[in-house]
Amino acid sequence: MTILEINNLSKSYQPGNLAVRDVSLSIGQGECLGLVGESGCGKSTLARCVLGVEEMNDGTIAFNGLLLDKMNRQELRNYRRNIQTVFQNPTASLNPKLKIKDSLLDPYLQFHKELQLEHFTYTTKKAFVEQLLETVELPTELGDRYPHELSGGQKQRVTIARAISIEPKLIVLDEPTASLDVLSQGAILDLLVSLQKALGMSYLFISHDLAAVYQLSQRIAVMKDGELLDLFQREDIYGTSRHNYTKELISIF
């Protein structure tokens, strides 16, 4: 079942200069679609359009069959609840003045009246925070700390816990390991794999790192200069039909 469908999406910041050109992609329920390409190729612009942060110039985005630009207020609220994000820099994603437990509770308190959680149980604030921290393999006592007291890898686990706390259908992972050391990168990727299996969520995993995309994704899309050049199943990465640019990426993979 397709949950997100992007058709012929184009986005320009300056007339005649398209950051994203006529891109069509879909993401199935429980699937990870990897989007790979060099910096500035349009990956993050595409993600911002999906998140509704940027308006498209052309094309459509549909979530569960509903067009993003045609949604009413309640449908748009439901859309925003079901699409969460994990960004590259966890430090910038967390309010330095809030304790970790308060950052984790914020999404739930925003949407609690319309939530029907399947995997998490809310009884008390303390128990909910502890459940989230345990799910991302963090000590529960970290809930009483501030972001500056955590390592980069721990902070990224917190942002992942916050993203999954309201059980969205899709998480946009925008270079989630790029700011971490090698050991933390591997641990975060392993965590994301296990969470996807446990919670049944879909991912749009954006990265310049083909090795990371290959580890996490069932399908891989390749972008360059705003265009989608290649789209294939993970197991077909070495196929003869791969685009020359894909082959270049594979050569340094």
Automatic annotation (TrEMBL):
Keyword Transport: yes
Keyword Nucleotide-binding: yes
CDD domains for the chain: ABC_NikE_OppD_transporters (cd03257)
InterPro entries linked to this entry: AAA+_ATPase, ABC_transp_ATP-bind, ABC_transporter-like_ATP-bd, ABC_transporter-like_CS, P-loop_NTPase
A molecular-function term among this protein's GO annotations: ATP hydrolysis activity
GO biological process, one term: transmembrane transport
Residue intervals of the ABC transporter domain: 4-250
PROSITE patterns: ABC_TRANSPORTER_1, ABC_TRANSPORTER_2
Sorted UniProt keywords: ATP-binding, Nucleotide-binding, Transport
Cited Pfam families: ABC_tran
PANTHER family (UniProt xref): ABC TRANSPORTER, ATP-BINDING PROTEIN, TRANSPORT ATP-BINDING PROTEIN
Name of protein: Dipeptide/oligopeptide/nickel ABC transporter ATP-binding protein
Source organism (scientific name): Terribacillus saccharophilus
